[in-house]
């Protein structure tokens, strides 16, 4: 049974999106252990000349084969990052130790604590302030040339497991890294979020703290099945986001979102428009419906609580004129705004 967790930079099995720099990270492990990577490259069908291409890419399937073969052959799931090996099965142990947690926050705190049993070279930190959760990595030694590969992979290990455990995509608010922007920066929005930041104090991802309150949805049987082949955790991105509908509703109720289009809303959520629409559809909702619901709630509350002119209520609900507002309100409630206000008194 494989214990390898989700690999960090895979999006579609048939597309070459994994930077050759990450392949080089695996080759560096072979060099550190004085072993020949030739058989691993051959098994993954990665031609030697591709290794010299600065903008080279390999497919998800190729990288899965290469990484899996290397972890077994070197008996090191950390691929040479740390001062001692993490034997085959180490990250599977972390997954198993966190599985019985009541919610994601407890699971991640267990992950943090148990990871220190594996190595002191780095440790995870989880901080929660107001509505924001931050998962970061503290480096306790020089990680050398594999620093980027190590930090990116570790964050994706924790994030991939978290998404799988709660059966939900976790939309990142931000992602930051403590090194200069790499040449292959274009892959970062795919594996993390839009507009990653470089030159930061430490590697860190942030997300809505409400994800931490979600219960784990997996059991031992599901874990055993996942550990046999963890690639789908990243090759098949989660379409379900159990908080997305609530986050969109909150955003649409803000005054600045009254006339916001789909692009502006997607940008505020750090998502592409395509991803926003796809994930809402997976949740049985649409942006148009959520906009209508938000407008109706804003208008109904304004009419019920005060004596503001109908024209002002219309504007507050995102309508450009009173006539279109009255028509929409009648469609929602079956009565005019004025009649609704009188009935509420």
Q: Rg to the nearest angstrom? A: 24 Å
- Terminal Cα span: 67 Å
Q: If you average the pLDDT, what whole number results?
A: 86
- What spatial order of strands do you see in the largest sheet? 3-4-7-5-6
Helix tally equals: 16
Structural classification: alpha+beta
**Main sheet record:** 5 strands, mixed
* Beta-strand content: 5-15%
Shape: elongated
User: Could you give the count of β-strands?
Assistant: 7
Helix fraction by DSSP (H/I, runs of at least 4): 40-55%
Low-confidence stretches: 8-13
List the secondary-structure elements in sequence, H or E: EHHEHHHEEHEHEEHHHHHHHHH
Number of individual domains: 2
In summary, what is this structure?
This protein is of the alpha+beta class and 345 residues long. The protein is 48% helix and 11% strand. The model is unreliable at 8-13 (pLDDT under 50).
Description:
The model is unreliable at 8-13 (pLDDT under 50). Strands 3-4-7-5-6 form a five-stranded mixed beta sheet. A two-stranded antiparallel ribbon has the order 1-2. It is built from 16 helices and seven strands. The protein has two domains: 16-235, no CATH class; 244-344, Homeodomain-like (Arc Repressor Mutant, subunit A, Orthogonal Bundle). The chain is of the alpha+beta class.
